[in-house]
Description:
Number of strands: 5
Strand order of the largest sheet: 3-4-2-1-5
Shape: globular
Largest sheet: 5 strands, mixed
Number of helices: 9
Helix content: 40-55%
Structural class: alpha+beta
Strand content: 5-15%
Order of helices and strands: HEHEEEHHEHHHHH
Amino acid sequence: MIDDLDATSPRGALAIRLREAVLDRWRAEVQAIGLFGSMAHGDDSDSSDVNLLVVTSRPRTGPKPARRMVDGIPVDLRVITAEQGLGEARLLAPLWPLQADAFITTFPLLDLQSWFKDRREAHLTLLTEARPMEFTGQARSSWAVASGAHSRAVRHAQRCDTDAATMMMAEARLYAAMVTGFLTRTYFRNTADAVKHAGVATAGTQELGAILNYQAEELTARGRPVDGRLGALFD
Length: 235
């Protein structure tokens, strides 16, 4: 567990200090503490965040969630109750391709009741039991966001509003990657990893439009058409 953490690195040393600071103030309320992201995978670099998850036994206890620099290192402190965390792991949420990695890979700094193991097993059970239509349903929702952002990007580009077009294209690429994640049951480490592995990181408006058209055809073939009559909206 914590003995396997590289305490000689600035991020490892900070993670240990954060753990001790949390326990000094909220030991009675805290059930588990763990790292997710690059430090959990063991491939963090000088530009990596310290992503810390604090699990409490009851709501509104423990530290408050925060994002800030500590000694020059970005820290993402998240706080969740044990019940809420297990509940999230049992749901196929709209951001699943970006959330699943934290469910599957966590480095425990404190976990006397094996909470992180329980959460991992709960999520793996979900993935085993989830029906294909659940994944394609989420994929279609992501497609709608991607398609809308792509259309706005095209309009902004036609008006020579390149800044707005760039922002909309970034959103369109990300949600097109989410579609790929749901259709292939693939989860990603972060947003950059998502667009890279989905092959849309550098896609221009025409190329991304073609990708979205292909995704629409794939969704239709899987019983989730992206367009339909009004009544289908409520099915």
